[in-house]
TrEMBL record:
It comes from the Eukaryota. InterPro entries: DEAD/DEAH_box_helicase_dom, DNA_helicase_ATP-dep_RecQ, Helicase_ATP-bd, Helicase_C-like, P-loop_NTPase, RecQ_Zn-bd, WH-like_DNA-bd_sf. It is found in: Nucleus. Its EC number is 5.6.2.4. Belongs to the helicase family. RecQ subfamily. GO terms for cellular component: chromosome; cytoplasm; nucleus. This is ATP-dependent DNA helicase. Residues 248-391 form the Helicase C-terminal domain. NCBIfam families: recQ_fam. Residues 41-221 form the Helicase ATP-binding domain. Its main location: nucleus. PROSITE patterns: HELICASE_ATP_BIND_1, HELICASE_CTER.
Amino acid sequence: MPTAGPKSPVTIDPRAVTLAKDILKEVWGYTAFRLEQEAAITRLICGGNAAVIFPTGGGKSLVYQVPALAFDKFDKICGRPVGLGVTLVVSPLIALMKDQTQALKKRGVKVAALDSTQDRDSVLETYQMLRTGELKLLYVAPERLNNEGFVETIKDVKIRMVAVDEAHCVSEWGTSFRPIYLTVARFVKEVNAERVLCLTATATPKVTDDILQGFDIEAEGLFRTPMFRSNLRLLAKAAQSETEKLAHLKQFLKANPGPTIVYVATHAQTQAIAAALEAEGFRVAAYHAGLANPLRTEVQDRFMAASDMIIVATIAFGMGVDKPDIRNIVHYTIPKSLEGYSQEIGRAGRDGLPSTCFLYLSAADIKQIESFSRADVPSLQSVHGLLESFFGEWPYAQKGVVVETNMTNLSKKWDIRPTCLALLFSQLDLRFGIVRAITPKYSSYSYQANEGFSSLNKSDRISQALVSASKKGKWTTVDVDMAASCCGRPREQVVRTLQSWATNGHIELKPSGVINRLRVLKPFPSKDEIKDLAEKAHQQLETKELENIERIKSVVELMAGHQCYARALAAYFGDELEDPCKRCGFCETGSPIKFEWPGNEMANVPIDETKIKMVLDAVGELNWNDARFLARVGWGITSPRSTSLRLGKTKAWGCCEGVPFDKLVKAFEVHCVE
Ligand SMILES: Nc1ncnc2c1ncn2[C@@H]1O[C@H](COP(=O)(O)OP(=O)(O)OP(=O)(O)O)[C@@H](O)[C@H]1O
């Protein structure tokens, strides 16, 4: 069987079609394939690669599940030696992995997932099943592919297919680019996977190209079905003020009953809007990623069961929510991109019944999102400082050695958000080939003793060392390096003892203090080279910022444009809708919404020097070294440094909001010292 990579045309064997249908019937009890499932599945069984772009709920999972069960059977049918092996499913969503593995186990499929919440024994059990070829499907998070233990184990296993979920994350043009996905593409090649399948619900033509190129998938392997569902009615309105928006929302919800998701931008808004709707008598709950886990599950469960309930949520809500009868999706604040919009409205009306999607355009919201986007980009100076200090710490680093660092500390010290830091380090790996991230480790562990821990036999050297390297508190913290040097055993062995206590229920164990480890790929750059490197890396971040703003503009243009919304949305994703939908806001009124992109009127807002001084005083002289940081404080945009300086409650916080961000940066540059 050839490995993944561009292939000569794949010949479809009719026996593969029959086999796929038999498996579908036998394991799932379904009688027919949907959309392009059959074409994609048979191509995979016959040895081809594929990329599948089906809307949410379109049935993507079966496209890898059916082939995973078919590969060895098909070998047999073709009279080839039966190649035992596994299909790896790379998915960033732990909750989804859990749901899917449970559902497949119920159907008698040999499946497992490796995620960060598992104990060592179940990981070992999974590794064992991998080696014996018992396992048909293994779900892993993308981060796992950097884990050296995993990579070592997988080297001896035949990888029949790698299925990459949320594959749009590989595209740097996409809204959800995740640098780790670039390493997924490299992994597929490095482990000689027989074939690769990429899955996503949203991809513009450019993102689709990036997926095909990134994973070496031939154009014939692309299967996409139109995004637009004719039961969705797309509406929008420009709102002048928050009061107007809220009043309209209440009216809308009264006129359009049924399960509804109202998307807002911040945690605080979920609570505020939910409270306002509750006061009006609606059955409503707030949902955001900051809620404690039991409450999140409880809210989600209630919504899933309800026939008339409103969830006011950030976009954290919805991934994996497969409720067929959601009647309305409201974007109370504008989505950050048409990709986001399309994914979110795709959750409405999966039962095919009429459903409404309402979007509000408001200048204040756009300004807020724009400022979030700007906040993401660190100054060139920060990037330069970061690289100088990182490389400077290892002046004699040679190819092959492993260096250690702590991303959280770097993020705080150089005022670079963790997402940007990840992007910078991925550039150091994939673009510049200098360092490559490998399995991180934890500097310390803390535990709480359960009943029976005190009577546990701890007379061996490792246990004794652990006890003496422990500091009691509500959680007892253990310095594992100290314990390892006390007893003269390798660190891994000491960690294993600690983990065995946890596995046996003697303690609750919490690892902390991640130490990121990077393998050096070539000698580190000189001072001059670092300057050049910083400029190139920073430029990429700036380009991203501009792209983010363009994406918000494309949402506004769609709603305020002279075209049927559904048609324009389809065109954005490379689909063609022959006729106008006849039911969207534009089709209904025949005229576009009047809405101007905000900002032009801001250009003349003068700089108020007293406010500039207020910011300078609040941050202290030591921090007058980064104009972008100062401008963020002026706008009230959080960043790692402003959080650690606790600036959020000072008078200066947000005092210059309203002044164009770039103008503010220039104003602060005058005051900055090297
Ligand atoms: N051929 C089929 N016949 C009947 N039901 C199907 C078929 N294919 C998929 N389904 C069902 O449709 C539902 C949605 O499928 P699935 O979860 O795979 O969608 P998805 O495309 O992965 O969605 P999402 O983007 O939300 O993850 C599931 O309940 C699945 O069992």
